[in-house]
Design a protein that fits this description.
Helix 1 packs antiparallel against helix 2. The protein has about 450 residues and is of the alpha/beta class. Helix 5 (about 145-150) links the parallel strand 2 (about 135-140) and strand 3 (about 155-160). The protein is built from 13 helices and 16 strands. The protein has helices at about 1-25, 30-75, 80-85, 110-125, 145-150, 175-195, 215-230, 270-275, 285-290, 295, 350-360, 370, 390-400; strands spanning about 105-110, 135-140, 155-160, 200-205, 210, 230-235, 255-260, 265-270, 300-305, 310, 365, 380-385, 405, 410, 420, 425-430. It starts with a helix and ends in a 12-residue tail after the last strand. Helices cover about 40% and strands about 15% of the residues. It has three domains: about 1-25 and about 35-70, no CATH class; about 105-355, Spore Coat Polysaccharide Biosynthesis Protein SpsA, Chain A, CATH 3.90.550; about 365-430, 2,3-Dihydroxybiphenyl 1,2-Dioxygenase, domain 1 (Roll), CATH 3.10.180.20. Strands 3-2-1-4-8-6-9-7 form an eight-stranded mixed sheet, sandwiched between helices. The protein has a four-stranded mixed sheet with strand order 11-12-16-15. The chain binds uridine-diphosphate-N-acetylglucosamine (UD1) and manganese (II) ion. Uridine-diphosphate-N-acetylglucosamine (UD1) binds next to strand 1, helix 6 and helix 9.
Length: about 450
């Protein structure tokens, strides 16, 4: 209602100012007329700025009230989170409309078309505005992008990173300045989410991500798992090895894994984790910093077999490093899985690890050539063993898997094992049985 009033006021003032302006324009231009019209222009700009500020303020207020209302509802309801975790009662409707608030933070800068594409899909699949408020945080002060975001009205909340000052970058890292700007923006935006808006968790996406139809369902259902297992620190929608020929597209949409590798690219974290990471947040390369052992501290993320995000950001700060070779080919899940009706407690460490280890151990050991030939029976699981870094690189390259490490952890790795699907075979690329942990010198 307030917003409407402000809009009306804005329109009224603009009409009035136009009339005054027209009056002056019909007079012969004297220097005092020019001065007046300049003043009017300045005042118009000022007014617009003020009105925008007010509209942001009221949006923020509205958002806070929504949060309060939800908190109240969640606390009053007897539906505990634990119930959501183990609920197998299929007679209930989808639980995704009810439950704790999981805001989506969309990080934006200056890509107008990209932000529209991201927002359109998020809004298309969002089951509830109350449960999944979308906060778009814009850096870079790019006006067309701001206007694009504003055009979504109160479907999203726009916040703007206020510090657009130049950022000090060590000389030899000058070409990586973008990473410094991104890290600064993340820190500010996450502080807003947790300190200003008081959310308990957040799902972070960037402005060049497409999301899958069950994106919200996925995060909603995994949230209780994340909360109840201290050895987990994130849920990600991304599979680094999620190319169509490396995942079970046909039957694998329900499969979820634990991974020691932080995937990012559409991921959820709790306030508790932000309280830990926020105060020591780095000035640049935030995602690699997150992957360092000091931050990760042996914690894992949940990731899907079939990606729930896909990036279309060919031109980004990292200049499409992996884009053509890997990122572009990630298969986006296209069927809706009702995760909230499934029992996901198998992802808890104490349940997951023994099963996982048994699976790997009981798989027939085969060679790279066996896998590439057509001689292995489908339906079984197989294990390829790697011993050295070079060995690992050779195998991954041959199969089209990502071959890099961050802090010694290979992409999607869990206990050193890469799980993927190749030519209809489930394969574990695994270290030998005497594996002692990741070697940070592997890169
Ligand atoms: C890569 C990662 C990205 C990570 C970033 C920082 C991939 C595919 N992408 O970025 O997840 O966050 O490294 O290590 O691995 N942005 C700003 N301010 C700026 C410039 C960009 O906020 O000055 C925002 C963009 O809107 C976008 C995000 O930062 O949401 C990443 O920028 P992008 O240009 O897409 O860089 P990538 O190379 O994809
Ligand atoms: Mn990007």
């Amino acid at each position: 209602m307030r917003k409407k009033q402000i809009l009306l006021l804005k329109v009224g003032v603009v009409i009035w100012l136009c009339m005054v302006y027209a009056l002056f324009i019909h007079k012969p231009a004297t220097s005092s007329n020019i001065q007046i019209s300049q003043t009017i222009n300045q005042q118009l700009d000022k007014l617009e700025e003020e009105l925008n500020g007010q509209s942001q303020f009221y949006n923020g207020l509205l958002e806070k009230l929504r949060i309060l209302r939800r908190h109240q509802e969640t606390h009053m309801s007897s539906d505990s989170l634990a119930e959501g975790l183990t609920s197998q009662d299929n007679s209930k409707g989808s639980t995704v409309q009810a439950g704790p608030i999981l805001p989506v933070l969309l990080i934006a800068c200056n890509r107008e078309a990209a932000v529209r594409r991201s927002l359109d899909l998020l809004l298309k699949y969002r089951p509830s505005q109350d449960r999944f408020p979308i906060i778009v945080s814009q850096d870079c002060g790019h006006r067309p992008t701001r206007e694009a975001i504003e055009s979504y009205g109160d479907k999203v909340v726009l916040i703007q990173q206020p510090d657009l000052s130049d950022i000090e970058v060590p000389l030899k890292e000058r070409k990586f300045k973008g990473y410094f700007l991104i890290a600064r923006h993340y820190k500010w935006a996450l502080n807003q989410v947790f300190q200003k808006y008081n959310h308990e968790a957040v799902i972070i996406v960037e402005d060049d991500l497409d999301v899958a139809p069950d994106f919200f369902e996925y995060f909603s259902a995994t949230y209780p798992v994340l909360q109840s297992d201290p050895t987990l620190w994130c849920v990600s929608a991304w599979n680094d090895n999620g190319k169509a020929n490396l995942v079970d597209v046909k039957n694998g949409s329900t499969i979820l894994y634990r991974t020691d590798f932080f995937p990012g690219l559409g991921w959820m974290m709790t306030k508790e984790l932000w309280d830990e990471l926020g105060p020591k947040w780095p000035r640049s390369y935030w995602d690699d910093w997150v992957r360092a052992p000091e931050q990760r501290a042996d914690r894992a993320c949940i990731r899907p077999e079939v990606s729930r995000t896909r990036t279309f950001g060919k031109k980004g700060v990292s200049n499409g490093l992996f884009y053509e070779k890997y990122l572009k080919q990630i298969h986006l899940n296209d069927v809706s899985v009702q995760f909230s009706k499934m029992n996901l407690s198998y992802l808890l460490k104490e349940q997951y690890d023994p099963v996982f280890e048994r699976q790997v151990q009981s798989s027939q050991v085969v060679t790279l050539n066996d896998v590439r030939s057509d001689r292995l029976a489908k339906g079984n699981t197989y294990r390829i063993i790697y011993h050295t870094k070079d060995n690992y690189k050779k195998i991954t390259k041959a199969l089209g898997l990502m071959d890099d490490f961050k802090a010694g952890v290979p992409r999607t790795g869990y206990k050193g094992v890469i799980t993927f699907f190749y030519g209809g075979l489930r394969i574990f690329l695994s270290p030998g049985n005497n594996w002692k942990g990741y070697n940070p010198s592997w890169s």
